[in-house]
Fold Phospholipid/glycerol acyltransferase domain-containing protein.
Amino acid sequence: MSPFLKLILKVSRIVGLFMLACHMTIVFLFSGLLLNFLQLILYLTLYNTNRKLYRKINYYLIYFSWTQILAVYEWRSNSDCNLYGDEVSIREFGKEHDIIIMNHKYDVDWVICWFITNHLKMLSNSKTCAKKQLRNVPVIGWGWIFAEMIFLERNWEKDKLVMGEKLDKLTEYEDPIMLLLFCEGTRFTPEKHKASVEFAKSRGLPILQHHLCPRTSGFNFIAKHCKGKIPWVYNIQLGFPKTEKNPTFSNLLRGYSFTADVFLERIPLSEVPTDSDEATAQWLHQLYVKKDKLMDDYFKTQKFPGMCVKVKRSYRTLINSIVWAVVIGIPWLYAIYLVLTTGNVFLTSLVSSTFILLFTVMFYMVKQTKASKGSSYGTKTKMPTETAKNGTFGHEQVNGEVVNDVIPEHKESQASSDNETNLTRNCEQINNL
């Protein structure tokens, strides 16, 4: 093949990918904003009068929006997901209210959560605690408001005043929910990890290699408040096999494929000690010691322990995306056709302004998924001050953030790792767990 022909093919591919990205952006944002508007109407008319019906209808409005993101992971990038763990943990996952404790290392960990919950047919009932700034993100952030996500100030003195009420609203759901907790408080970066290690050394806490030191105040409150309401805690560990490209949302949009490996461990919430904040905090720290060992072994073996189940992609996400591509795409393409054929200045200005605005919004949304957009944890050098109270330390200023954590005064020793039997089997595709 001649160099000139190769250049033509390369340019054609770039142009084609750009046009596809433009079309996907327009469709997702227009449909998302329409669904946000319908959610607002639904909230104003039903939330305070018939909350059960509101949640049933809102489930599908959320589904129609979020599954367009999943279609990018499943069908645009042709990516996969494997579940590891014991048979009971995998089989019972998602059948009751669950608290999820997950590592927070990758830009697309939230996409993987959606992928799994969609497989369990509970996508719209997956909840999380998110930083308050995400409320301002169009489509996703606005949808999270109507999905009753818990938004936090990252100031425990303020957050604890409303946390109980928000948890009660979630636990009253008739259908199973998953409450996802990133106890590290922010995504893992080398800078934040360095600050975390320094903090752990100053407190006599376990030194973690693949995680940040967990913040215990929120989990302490949730574990105590939800006992008797949420029966299970799931220790979930996410890993991606090492590839040339990092698993970011922008790389998904470019069509790069990834395989997510997810470890599940089912733990009764009744076994989590909640008699004191110190006991609960120590339990959480020891869980992160175990998570660190899991991650260390994963990087060496490229697999988690236990049986392996390959999660099948959903054709519903593809069908939903195609329907929206027709419903939104055809009018949009017709508008472009009018611009090209009529030369109307007003119409040209309107379409061009809309195009620029929507791409600005999409760029902002993708940027929010990057690890660099996490909290300032680890980016400032100010060391926390210690105040002894009832055998605990409250560290209010940790690298510029108010966290008001409660940590045992005594030095915690590294937990000895249990000898686990590796039951790894060949992954097999199944329709239902």
Q: What stands out?
A: Residues 377-426, 428-433 have pLDDT under 50 and may be disordered.
